[in-house]
Amino acid sequence: MMTRSVRRTRRMLQVTGVSAAALLALSACSSSDSNSAKSGTSAPASSSPKLSGTVTVFAAASLKESFTTLGKEFEKAHPGTKVTFSFGGSDTLAAQITGGAPADVFAAASPKTMKIVTAKGDAVGTPATFVRNQLEIATLPGNPDKVASLKDLTKSSLKVVLCDRTVPCGAAAQKALTASKLKLTPVSYEQDVKSALNKVVLKEADAAVVYKTDVKAAGAKVQGVEFPESADAVNDYPITLLKDAPNAAAAKAFIALVQSAEGRQVLTGAGFLKP
């Protein structure tokens, strides 16, 4: 028969074993809590969904250089994505969008042309102004005709080109001419600002009223002449996500890039004004 002393010793060992197991469990919990505290969470953090696919951007012709740069930046930051652009007159692009053309983002050169899209309910939320642009006269290199003002463009000896009045750059030019009480009959009206500028680049015209950004982008191919009346005809550029965007997630990310400090740097570097 087992002595009382032996039974007491076994009970003490059992209690000690339970206590040790409890201490080990507590230690493990403490270690786990400590690690969770260090990582800032008790469960693995869910990462943002990876962007992929094509983002289709309809944008005013004057945005061509800066948006092309931002498109490359976007693709680099989001491997597996591709940004495709359709540049042109804002009114033409707006008509294409309301006509059902598939696109994710619309960036217009004026609130008036953006309204064509919003009025049809094809935009998501309220379009945001991200930059502004101002007019400038583009002349032949060296300015051989000595153009120094908006009034100089009214000389009958000069071949001058304007954007069509339905296009933002044309509407702005007309606003500046009206404010100056000047009448100008151009040799042609062009459907977008790049087409107007190209007439001077090809020496088919002596001068054109375009945006400062376009003069800057053309470099030595033209010479820019500022005129004070342009301050009364500055265009706001709004951007929006489109209602039936095929790739809404990537489209939102592209718009965020345009509105970011990085995007602003590219745009102001191209000559655009801050909103």
From TrEMBL:
Query: What span is annotated as the signal peptide, if there is one?
Result: 1-30
Superkingdom to which the source organism belongs:
Bacteria
Query: Is the keyword Metal-binding assigned to this protein?
Result: yes
Keywords for the protein's UniProt record, in alphabetical order = Metal-binding, Signal
User: Entry's SUPFAM superfamilies?
Assistant: Periplasmic binding protein-like II (SSF53850)
Which NCBIfam families does this one have?
modA
Q: Which family does it belong to?
A: Belongs to the bacterial solute-binding protein ModA family.
Known PANTHER family for this protein? Answer: MOLYBDATE-BINDING PERIPLASMIC PROTEIN (PTHR30632), SULFATE-BINDING PROTEIN (PTHR30632:SF0)
Instruction: List the protein's name.
Output: Molybdate ABC transporter substrate-binding protein
- Species this chain originates from: Streptomyces longisporus
Q: What is the lineage of its organism?
A: Bacteria, Bacillati, Actinomycetota, Actinomycetes, Kitasatosporales
